[in-house]
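Exercise 7.
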Amino acid sequence: MGKKNTTIILFLGIIGIMIISQSFTGASNYLSNEDPTKCGTTVISKPNGKKSHFFGLNCSACHGDDKKGKGCFTIAGSVLNEERSNIYKNPIIKLYTEPKGGGKLVATILGDALGNFYTTENIDFSKGLYPTLIGSPNAAEPIKHMTLPIYSDMGQCNKCHGYRKDEEALGID
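Solution. The predicted structure, written as tokens, is:
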């Protein structure tokens, strides 16, 4: 089996585990942002920004309801380059209503110069949204699509796509 097939199988396996684990863990619904005033501060990553920190860690562990970080992130994560060796600066994440960039574009999250993306904007995940990662045109796979939808309690991208070896790190390839 080729490297690309192995990567696809690992990616799908991790997504499956993520969905199953969410149903058993009783995941908090603070990411749904049902009451956006509850967390106060609006925090949104910006291209070339350098205010983020802790690349690869689960952002929502601190940036959630009753947590110490500023704002409740509705979606957040970190992106590596094609070789998974360095951060991928200024990533772009798009959320669609259908797989592979289909349907309606619901939100675009622009990442920062440190490879992190995050927002406290109110995003309706109730029917599930399909993330698409836009990379550099010269990458082997410049656009990556998640084949399964994410819901309000699944915007913690680094929870499953962190930088440890047992996780499928988000990256451009």
